[in-house]
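Batch manifest line 325
LIGAND: adenosine-5'-diphosphate
JOB: complex structure
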Amino acid sequence: ETTINRIAAGEVVERPASVVKELVENSVDAGARRIEIVTAGGGKTLIRVADDGAGMERGDLLLAVERHCTSKLTEDDLLDIRTLGFRGEALPSIGSVAELQVETRNAAEPHGWSLTVSVGRKSELRPAGLSGGTRVEVRNLFFATPARLKFLKSDRAETAAITDMVKRLALAAPHVRFTLAGADRKTLDFPAEPENGDGRVRIAQVMGEDFVENAIPIDAEREGVRLTGFIGLGTYQKANSLSQFLFVNGRSVRDKMLLGAVRAGYTDVMASDRYPAVVLFIDIDPHQVDVNVHPTKADVRFRDSGLLRGLLVGALRAAHVAAGH
Ligand code: ADP
Ligand code: MG
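JOB STATUS: finished
ARTIFACT:
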């Protein structure tokens, strides 16, 4: 079991930022309105994610650290994935390569429960004194696999990767308040977008006021695929995928085809090697897209990628024309 989990861990847990991603997505899936993230040592020594979501009942906590136990999927649901997680791999994988502690409290329980897993070894359940939600702590990532640890970048670079990841996650969940703190970083605090907001509040928090001030809203649709977001025409810079935020059904993606379409949408018009920052959300029938390509789910496969490409290129060109370029 431990060996299998460690192999799976290599797929799911590449680096501290991927741990942050998995834990935050679990919090979002649990209906959290507030997510607090703390890291130390580039996430290598500590990652803590606390939420005010539904929490887990006693039995669910035991199952949560078992491989392929997910509460989010049934057999015929495989194509219809609306939650962010669905593999049931994250917690067991993390538990196999770190010291994992999960404390949780579900309203159906008289008190909370806590469980630890240290390099695959599970503790007994213990009562925990938290009033609600879930608190996951990951300490000493890869401490039992020095080869993997050596493969990580400097604390500074891993800290930056975590910041980028939290920005992506925060853009995808604007109605959730996010904080990211730690002794070695500037605290980020993104208060929740108002319930009737259009996304601009969160985008301004993450991308800066300048971006939103000079941005052109995008809103296009083709054959049931909707594209919304902003293209920041005031923020041209050298090609940099860190300023290209793309989401498919609320999931951050770094898909090559989509990034290529974004580029094609303005290089033709601008004849320049500088690129605007973009924040684009694609909403598509889940049956038209496969997010199951890779466990970290950054790649996607569309049934009709030509349609997607056409939609993006067309909308970005139109935005430039509208802006008088
Ligand atoms: P997945 O998200 O693919 O289901 P995970 O390993 O990430 O798999 O989590 C396993 C299970 O643990 C989830 O299905 C969920 O039931 C539970 N869980 C994990 N994190 C939380 C959380 N923050 N709040 C509530 N339940 C959680
Ligand atoms: Mg998950």
